[in-house]
Structure formats: structure tokens, C-alpha cells
Amino acid sequence: xxxxxxxxxxxxxxxxxxxxxxxxxxxxxxxxxxxxxxxxxxxxxxxxxxxxxxxxxxxxxxxxxxxxxxxxxxxxxxxxxxxxxxxxxxxxxxxxxxxxxxxxxxxxxxxxxxxxxxxxxxxxxxxxxxxxxxxxxxxxxxxxxxxxxxxxxxxxxxxxxxxxxxxxxxxxxxxxxxxxxxxxxxxxxxxxxxxxxxxxxxxxxxxxxxxxxxxxxxxxxxxxxxxxxxxxxxxxxxxxxxxxxxxxxxxxxxxxxxxxxxxxxxxxxxxxxxxxxxxxxxxxxxxxxxxxxxxxxxxxxxxxxxxxxxxxxxxxxxxxxxxxxxxxxxxxxxxxxxxxxxxxxxxxxxxxxxxxxxxxxxxx
Length: 364
Prior knowledge:
By secondary structure, the protein is mainly beta. The protein has helices at 52-63, 175-182, and strands at 2-6, 10-15, 28-35, 41-49, 68-74, 76-80, 86-92, 118-120, 125-126, 136-137, 150-151, 158-162, 170-173, 191-195, 207-212, 223-228, 245-249, 255-257, 261-270, 292-299, 305-307, 317-318, 323-328, 336-345, 351-354, 359-363.
């Protein structure tokens, strides 16, 4: 029932055709295969790193012993000539690298920081090309050495396969790597994201996919989502038996600070309560949503799903007062409006989505 988003501290694209070009300030990250003007097969790879202190804080103080999963998410900006099926890979990077101050279009090119050949051009530190350290590797074509260094353990490798029916946004499950960072089994130097070896440096397929970087001026920066199950059900209230209900957000203040955590409560009552003789109104009898109830968050302007329904991580809890769920507002862009959707599945398999003006704004 908990989703926390962490945003990158740095990112860059490595281009095999421009081995010393730095792109640390680009708004776009590119994952492509292409034919160069020299008629050679070339590729680009993505580097992205998330802050260690934030990961440690979230796992220690919020997840707090619960099992959790972690996902890298990057949002597609543009694509062309995409093949029917393809697969991308991510690995944890071995060794430090510098962001730099370059952009792809800079003339003359900017070389400080990370590039295809260098971890850090200014210090002269290159990526390993021979005698790789234990449990690490890299790959390149011909004499064009570089392109990153990453850990080889299969538990650290994450893959995502794309078919025509699937969105081209990246969502890679990287739980084992994040857990290894947290326990200091390996150092957090970020991730490298690349195409499969069968596509890189070949003429099999030339295509480009471009994603928004942490320097983007849009609402789509990359993020590391940490998800854990803090669902609890400790209520003696009765559960609504049919879809004829009225559900309201009892404590929606409509505006929330960017770094706040908000517990939303849901008041539920029968739309047509059974008539009875009582000294209090039957309309005040709070009930519960079915146990199969989940929340989702949508950007009100773009209709983009920010947090999707999840049968584990967005399940709605209940206590003696009623239903509730927590939203970690840090993962939402400030000065934007969002809508909460509630999906409930009843015992007769009827499903309803509640969206009765459940709006709020994130402010700085």
C-alpha cells in the first residue's frame, strides 16, 4: 500500500560514435542503435544514479523491515523505427563516474565528466577495457573501448521485453540491486541501461528511443520507485455488500506540501440504508469498502497514470475508524492537480471505480 519515488542525482548518455562527448546536462537520455556517417554500427547507453542517502532513509525508516521491491522508471519522449520485439538490460555500475556539464548539441563538444571512453575525462579515468575487476564486465566494438563497467551477477541483471502492444516506457525491476546497495554488498554507483548484445553493434536493427532525463522541464523525470506492503485490516466495521454506496474523502485538505505524507480516509455508507427505528441517523453508520479495494493517482491535466492500481502495493487498509491509505507526496510534481481513483471489487465480482471529485494539488 506504499509507493515512494526517488529522483536521480545524475544521468548521462554514452555514445560509441562520440567517445569523449559528455551529455550530463541533456534533457534527453538516448538508448539507440544506429549507422554512423562512417558506415559503422554504433550504439548509445544510459547511465543514471539515485541518491544512496535517500534509499537508506526510506528502507530504514519507512519500509522498516517489510519486504519491498524497487523499479527504475523512465518515460518515453520520442521513438522511431522501433522493431516488433526487443529487449533492454540494466546492471549496477561498478566504479564511480562524473555527471559533467555537456550536451549532445554542444559545438565544440563538452568533454568533462562521463563519456563512452571515460568515467571522468578531467581526471583521465577511463572505463576498463581489459583485465576487468572480479565479477564485472564491459562490452564494445573493435577498438572503440569503453561504454561502461557493470556487475555480472545474474541476480543484478534486469530485463524488460517490448512487444507492439506494450508501452515503450521503461520499468525495470531492480530489487536485488537496491537491496545489495542497502546492505553494502556493492557500492551504489547507479545503473547502466543498454540494448541486448544481439542488437548492439549489428546491422540487425537501427532504431532510437529517447527518454526524459533528470534535467527535463517536463513532469516526466526518471525515478526509482520503492514499493512495500503496509496493508493492515484491523476493523470490526461491516463491509459494504453491494455497489450502492456513497464514498467520500473525509480529510482531503485539497493542497499538500511537496515533502508531506498524507493519510487519506474514506467514509463509506449505504446509498439506500435499510429503514430502522433509532435515535441516530442511519446515514452516519460508517462501513468499509471490500477488502479488494485499491487506489490509483492520475495527473488531472494529462490523464497520465502516476501510480497505477496494484493488488499488493496500493491496497486500501482499514482500522476501527474506517478505510485509509497513505500517499507520499514527494513523488508528485509541484503546482499540479491530481485525482485519486478508488477501485473496489465486490464478492459478486462487480467492480466499481469511485472518482467523485477526489482532487488535490501539490504545492511547494
